[in-house]
Amino acid sequence: MQPGDYIEANRKMWNETAGVHAQFNLSRLQERVKSPDFSTFDEVEKRIFANIDLRDKAVIQLGCNNGRELISVKKAGAGRCVGIDISDNFIAQARQLASSGQVDMDFIRSSVYDLAHDFDGQFDLVYISIGFLGWLPDLNALFGIASRLLKDDGQIFIYEMHPILNMFNAEKGLVIDTSYFARESGGQVEPFVEEASPDYLDPSQLVNAVSYWFPHKLSDVITACLEHHLSLTHFQEYAHDISEVYAQFEHFEKKLPLCYSLVARKTT
Ligand SMILES: C[S@@+](CC[C@H](N)C(=O)[O-])C[C@H]1O[C@@H](n2cnc3c(N)ncnc32)[C@H](O)[C@@H]1O
Q1: Which of 124, 137, 140, 207 is the least crowded, having the fewest Cβ atoms under 10 Å away?
Q2: Nearest residue CA, atom 27 of ligand 1?
Q3: 159 lines ligand 1 (CB under 6 A)
Q4: What is the pLDDT of residue 187?
Q5: What is the pLDDT, as a whole number, of residue 134?
Q6: Ligand 1: which of 6, 7, 14 to mutate, judged by most atoms within 8 Å of the beta carbon?
């Protein structure tokens, strides 16, 4: 399969997932986003966004899903906000939520790899959060695009699941299932293939589509930053779960790193 085939399969799976999530929580979210204080930020995000100082900043979120995180960014004082997602149905939900929340934002349906050059150099901040990087076959190309989108001196903030979780199958618990070091073929990480499986927010619902998840290492993320002139200014690992899938791992006495935050600044 070519990278474009994986991305197209993932688009179909995310469109299926959007229907399940709409049933699960869209009407509740439509009510919640009406509040001027609406926020999805946890303590880590609050601290990092305060440090970045969102006021009037131009922000682009890659993999914005239904837009709830970017709406929080907007309500925290950001200026222009643009959300990109490959799923037609999640972008439709994001527009609905922005309208309910009475915030002026742009949501664009596109694969990050197809983003137009019109956006180059326009953003103070690229924001990536929870469960995005694994859908992307080519991490190095992604960070090239992120760097391109930033103004000189702009920053990227990533709050992601720790790649060590790729070694475990949440259903089997703390049993090493796969090597941390993924197999590669032709210079590309070989993906995990997921057949129809229960939804991560509403496990009572089956998402009936095949998807492809790329188990990139932490060093792949850091190397890709450095290759694209993104100099790390913050990096931290945490023992709390942000994935919704590995929550039970928080309770082990001997802690694993379950997520991390990274901030890097574009240098010229
Ligand atoms: C688990 S969500 C993470 C986003 C957000 N943090 C959240 O929790 O809702 C992953 C999102 O990435 C999007 N996505 C996957 N591949 C993509 C691609 N190539 N370009 C843009 N978006 C993509 C999916 O449609 C999905 O909405």
Answers
A1: 140
A2: 65
A3: no
A4: 76
A5: 97
A6: 14
Q: Which residues pair with 235 in a beta bridge?
A: 262
What 3-state class would DSSP assign to 80?
Answer: coil
CA of 128 to the centre of ligand 1 (A): 9
Over range 163-188, report the average pLDDT: 89
Confirm whether pTM is higher than 0.85.
yes
Residues facing residue 198 across a β-bridge = 206
Task: Report which ligand 1 atom has the smallest distance to the Cα of 129.
Answer: 6
- Mean pLDDT value of segment 20-30: 96
CATH number at residue 234: 3.40.50.150
Q: Which residues pair with 188 in a beta bridge?
A: 185
Provide the domain count of the chain: 1
218 pLDDT above the threshold of 90: yes
Residue of 111, 132, 159, 207 to test ligand 1 pocket, by largest number of atoms within 8 Å of CB: 132
Give the Å distance between the CA of 253 and the centre of ligand 1: 32
Cβ–ligand 1 contact at 87 (below 6 Å): yes
Number of Cβ atoms within 10 Å of the Cβ of 104: 9
Q: Does the pLDDT at position 103 exceed 80?
A: yes
Structural domain boundaries, residue 39:
3-266
Q: Are 51 and 86 in contact (CB under 8 A)?
A: no
What would the mean pLDDT of 176-198 be, rounded to a whole number? 88
pLDDT at 175: 93
Rounded distance from Cα 195 to ligand 1 centre (Å): 18
Report helix, strand or coil for 8: helix
Q: CA 45 to CA 78: how far, in whole Å?
A: 14
